[in-house]
């Protein structure tokens, strides 16, 4: 499962430091670009794949090669070909590293002035470096032409709008603020259900620990940052949580410090001293009954439901992370239109596919996510996905963006938070963490 890890963010940001930051002005018209890959002597990995001779074509660059996501991409490509039989799709997906390999190759290609016709990014501020480097076309007019602003939630549109413009088309939605558990484990412990607040979790956790189980499983640092955002969201609420990323909430305020102190207490009931190597091994600790809860995104449903053949509601279940009922902490895969795309018009057609009902309904049931659009065919989404889609389409649902997965913080700020979080986990100094992140926000905005 792809994620926006700190290593990816750092490698990509470093690769872009050599790109000169041009004017932020974008143009909806096709801009020709010179292919400089030959005279720059770039690595072969940065060169454009061999293309078929003759006819229209579009090169689609992603990291979707794993189970579920590959089938989803294939289904969307098949629908695209049905609508556009004269356009050949070049699937330039790069495997390995949960997107790390793809992002490294993409950075080289962008440096060389040899972009794919459309490439995958997480929606939101993960795109900030590309935009500052003047690498992307503004797609706001395409949203107007296709009527997408009326088909996507207001909270999503706000999260993907940067300086008044939209630069990518979200294909899917994942949810980050979820707490996973086994019903049989709760029954064995005499617990009637998962905690609704973090205060209730701490009470449950003390009792769970006395019975010899780990209250909360965690993995490497990115999973701890994922946990941090859900604690901040549950303690502060959606508006003040969003304020952390737009400057309206003071990181050094008593309320934020209090939320960070709660996070510290939550970590004390986790297995952080023997943290799992990644999210799947952390989930395995819950599956085998040694740990009780795990806060993770809804790609865990695919892992337990498909790879582990566990049954939703019977073998495993999920609830909003404590304090976040009625809130959807989203992350999204999206596609872009690079300036200088060699097949500009075909790339626009691909983006139209990405934003279409048919395209999203072809992709998401395979991927294990829900459509960004609110008019999806509900009959295609079963079990957990049916629950997720109902919440996503509910107009009363509050939508916020994920920190750990690229929606609300740019690469530079995410990197600073990673450093500060490592120190916080070791020292437990909430005030020092808040001060460090507050300074980093001002320095990187």
What does the model show?
- The protein has 445 residues and is of the alpha/beta class.
- The protein has two domains: 6-173 and 333-380, D-Maltodextrin-Binding Protein, domain 2; 178-323 and 410-444, D-Maltodextrin-Binding Protein, domain 2 (3-Layer(aba) Sandwich), CATH 3.40.190.10.
- The chain is built from 18 helices and 15 strands.
- The chain has helices spanning 6-16, 37-40, 69-83, 100-111, 128-132, 140-146, 154-160, 183-189, 198-210, 221-246, 254-268, 279-287, 299-307, 344-354, 357-367, 384-393, 411-427, 430-444; strands at residues 56-61, 87-91, 118-122, 161-162, 165-166, 169-170, 172-175, 178-181, 214-217, 291-295, 317-320, 327-331, 333-335, 370-371, 398-401.
- The strands form four sheets. The chain has a five-stranded mixed β-sheet with strand order 2-1-3-13-6. Strands 14-7-12-15 form a four-stranded mixed β-sheet, sandwiched between helices. The chain has a four-stranded mixed β-sheet with strand order 9-10-8-11.
- α3 (69-83) links the parallel β1 and β2 (87-91).
- α1 packs across α17.
- The longest helix is centred in the middle third of the chain and has 26 residues, at 221-246.
- The protein is globular and about 70 Å long.
- The two termini are 29 Å apart.
- The relative contact order is 0.18.
Summarize the structure in short:
46% of the residues lie in helices and 13% in strands. It has helices at residues 6-16, 37-40, 69-83, 100-111, 128-132, 140-146, 154-160, 183-189, 198-210, 221-246, 254-268, 279-287, 299-307, 344-354, 357-367, 384-393, 411-427, 430-444; strands spanning 56-61, 87-91, 118-122, 161-162, 165-166, 169-170, 172-175, 178-181, 214-217, 291-295, 317-320, 327-331, 333-335, 370-371, 398-401.
